[in-house]
Amino acid sequence: MPSRDEIFEKVKTALVDALGVDDDEVTPSATMVGDLGAESIDFLDIVFRLEKSFGIKIPRGELFPEDVLSSTEFVTNGKVNAAGMAALRARMPFYDLTNFEQNPSVQNFPNMLTVEDMVRYVQSKVGG
Amino acid sequence: MRWFWIDRFDEFVRGHHAVAVKNVSLAEEHLHDHFPGAALMPNSLIVEGMAQTAGLLVADAIDYNRRVVLAKVAGAEFHFDAVPGDTIRFKAEILDLKPGGSLTKVSSAVDDRLQGEAELFFAHLEPGEGVPKLFEPDELLKWLDQMHIYDIGRDESGQPLQRPDW
Q1: How many structural domains compose chain A?
Q2: Are the beta carbons of A41 and B75 separated by less than 8 Å?
Q3: Closest Cα in chain B to A57
Q4: Beta carbons of A44 and B95 less than 8 Å apart
Q5: Domain range spanning residue A10?
Q6: How far apart are CA B122 and CA B47, in angstroms?
């Protein structure tokens, strides 16, 4: 079972290759969109690289909950409502949603994802 | 009119790999000024040939039911310039394919010398995602025929590719 540091190093390699950023930019607290410049198409590229690197399968919607964020059941006036937050927590226990809860605007979601969230996600898949 | 940037396919194995060739000629106008007296094929246009080779391989693999658009070029490296008189051989292989996108690895070679290599990432767009219509069947079939895909292509089990009845 890989250690947290081993997972971080492989996640870092995937992000450097997918986003064309420098090694030292990929810190645990760096945000995927704001700091590393990831765009929507990059998330699919990252999925490919993580699957290959860790030998895991990442179903659509697991890394990025586009179905929850576009659901009228879970979104009210552009913000994720209480039921939506519960759905996100249940689906994505590996994400730290603390900051997002302060202002759960749908458009803020991509901005709050960090490298550490990616690492925790992979840990949940490989059991590290 | 479609922009042809490969001349024909020599190998085409559905969902796996394809080899296409392009002959570089001084008759191509873009070479006249690039550069005067020392014409060479810009590597950006080599990437276009790579993208057409890999893009058709991917589009065939998903039965042409989405529009395949080059979204990212990663790790592109070029080792020397292709010049008029060269025959460029593009080899594309599919590394991974999902409904929403695909990752391919493509190389270009001249006389068996590796000229360039890149990973090309394609997005697969559905109608409605800025795509009013996927393709004109007649136009697409003409292109595929011109590329000899149904003359030399094979499916996953090694059988000749069937020309679609659109």
Answers
A1: 2
A2: no
A3: B98
A4: no
A5: 1-58+113-128
A6: 13
Q: Does one domain contain both A3 and A46? A: yes
pTM above 0.90, yes or no: no
B100 vs A20, A44, A52: nearest CB: A44
- Nearest chain B residue (CA) to A59: B98
Q: What CATH number should be reported for the domain holding residue A53?
A: 1.10.1200.10
* Residue B132, CA atoms < 13 Å, CB-side half-sphere: 1
Phi and psi at residue A12, in whole multiples of 5°?
Answer: -60, -45
Residue B102 dihedral angles phi and psi, to the nearest 5°: -150, 155
A45 vs B101: CB contact, 8 Å cut-off? Answer: yes
Per-residue pLDDT tens, chain B, 166 aa: give them: 567 899 999 999 999 999 999 999 999 988 888 888 899 999 999 999 999 999 999 999 999 989 899 999 988 999 999 999 999 999 999 999 998 899 999 999 999 999 999 999 999 988 766 666 767 888 889 999 999 999 999 999 999 999 988 7
User: Please, what are the domains in chain B?
Assistant: 8-151 (3.10.129.10)
B120: which strand partners?
A: B73, B104
ipTM: 0.71
